[in-house]
Amino acid sequence: MTKTKLFVFNPFQVNTYVLYDDAGKCIIIDPACYEDPEKRALSDFIKKEGLEPVMILNTH
Description:
Structural class: alpha+beta
Strand content: 35-45%
Strand order of the largest sheet: 1-2-3-4
Largest sheet: 4 strands, mixed
Radius of gyration: 11 Å
Number of strands: 4
């Protein structure tokens, strides 16, 4: 099953999505985190869930 985690980053309120599956693989869509707390939030989530990023997709 694919799961989705939404983050809203930076003053432009950019939606960043992490799609991940039961195998622990994830795709990060529009990682618009610029400030250190935003970077930590994304990194901490990936570590906490035991995910392995396999793709980053920038749509804009």
